[in-house]
Q: What sequence folds into this?
């Protein structure tokens, strides 16, 4: 019997400024050297592909997730592997992802709010502290510790290079046979 290899999805999740986009982009670059059937999205780039405009409120974040999953599902149907870097701060959201996508791996970037605030060049935390943002996980909304992550990387203690190496080791063990 021949194994049918399904496209895979890696979701790198964590608080704002925990290193999601940086690590997702670096992982994409490494994998792209071996495979050209891969797509990478961070929260900003995938939001540009949405059918509707949404706020960052909690109800809208669930609507955004539904559209993200539609986009990823279509990419997988077209035999693309996908890396998505996004906040995904509720366990219910992660449960939805695990139920709707096959061959999906959740990588959680653990980083405390104080460190994330220092790294936040977009000013999300500052706006949240001033009451100018309605849903900033870690400040105005709890960032729930994941109960179903496939890998947890502490980006508060590990450098970008060390964090990337941990992710690459995970990918090597888990899906390297699927990277052509």
A:
């Amino acid at each position: 019997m021949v194994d049918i290899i399904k496209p895979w999805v890696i979701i790198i999740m964590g608080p704002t400024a925990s290193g999601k986009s940086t690590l997702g982009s670096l992982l994409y670059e490494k994998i792209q050297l071996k495979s050209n059937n891969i797509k990478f999205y961070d929260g900003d780039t995938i939001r540009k592909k949405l059918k509707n405009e949404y706020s960052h409120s909690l109800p809208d974040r669930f609507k955004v997730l539904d559209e993200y999953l539609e986009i990823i599902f279509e990419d997988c149907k077209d035999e693309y592997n996908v890396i998505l870097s996004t906040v995904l701060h509720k366990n219910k959201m992660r449960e939805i992802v695990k139920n709707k996508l096959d061959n999906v791996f959740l990588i959680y970037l653990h980083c405390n709010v104080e460190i994330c605030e220092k790294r936040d060049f977009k000013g999300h935390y500052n706006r949240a502290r001033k009451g100018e943002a309605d849903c900033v996980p870690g400040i105005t909304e709890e960032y729930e510790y994941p109960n179903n992550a496939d890998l947890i990387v502490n980006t508060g203690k590990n450098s970008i290079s060390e964090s990337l190496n941990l992710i690459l080791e995970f990918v090597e063990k888990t899906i390297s046979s699927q990277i052509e």
User: Anything to note?
Assistant: The CA atoms of residues 5 and 177 lie 9 Å apart. The beta strands are 9-13, 38-42, 81-86, 104-110, 151-154. The radius of gyration is 16 Å. The first strand starts at residue 9 and ends at 13.
